[in-house]
Amino acid sequence: MMPNTSSGAQAEQLALEFLHSQGLRLVTRNFRGRFGEIDLIMRDGETLVFIEVRLRNCFAYGGAEASITANKQNKIRLTASQYMQQHGEQACRFDTILMSELNRSGIVWIRDAF
Predict the structure, then answer these.
(1) What element of type H or E holds 104?
(2) How many CB atoms lie under 10 A from the CB of residue 109?
């Protein structure tokens, strides 16, 4: 990883490499819509997967998983809907990649997270 890259971008790159090793194929990164951004959009077979990547090394407020609030989930759903309106409706799911540090061994992948 490049030292000048932010930790968020490094986490997204680690997530991308991990998911690629699991057989998913990248569609696009950092899709921005009216309601927010989706970190990774990938294909798992015929299923379009919208992926939120979270890196949190502090557990004072619940860690990475707790940081994906209902409000954040709603923004991701709305942004995914906008993506599908632009690219055609498809079978989809929402996954999360959670990390407490920048290393692949600590990745937690939650399929159908919300």
Answers:
(1) none
(2) 15
Vertex 52 angle, CA 71 and 67, to 5°: 50
Q: What is the pTM of this model?
A: 0.87
d(Cα 39, Cα 51) in Å, to the nearest integer? Answer: 6
Per-residue pLDDT tens digits for 79-105: 999 999 999 988 999 999 999 888 888
2-10 long-range contacts, CB within 8 A, separation 24+: 7/55, 7/102, 8/53, 8/55, 10/102
The alpha helices in 3-98, defined as continuous H runs, are: 7-21, 63-66, 70-87
CA distance 113 to 21: 20
What is the set of domains in the chain, with CATH numbers? 8-62+92-114 (3.40.1350.10)
CA distance linking residue 102 with residue 89, whole number of Å: 34
Contacts of 54 (CB under 8 A, 6+ apart): 11, 64, 65, 67, 68, 96, 97, 98, 99
DSSP state of 16: H
Round to whole Å and give the CA distance between 59 and 20. Answer: 28
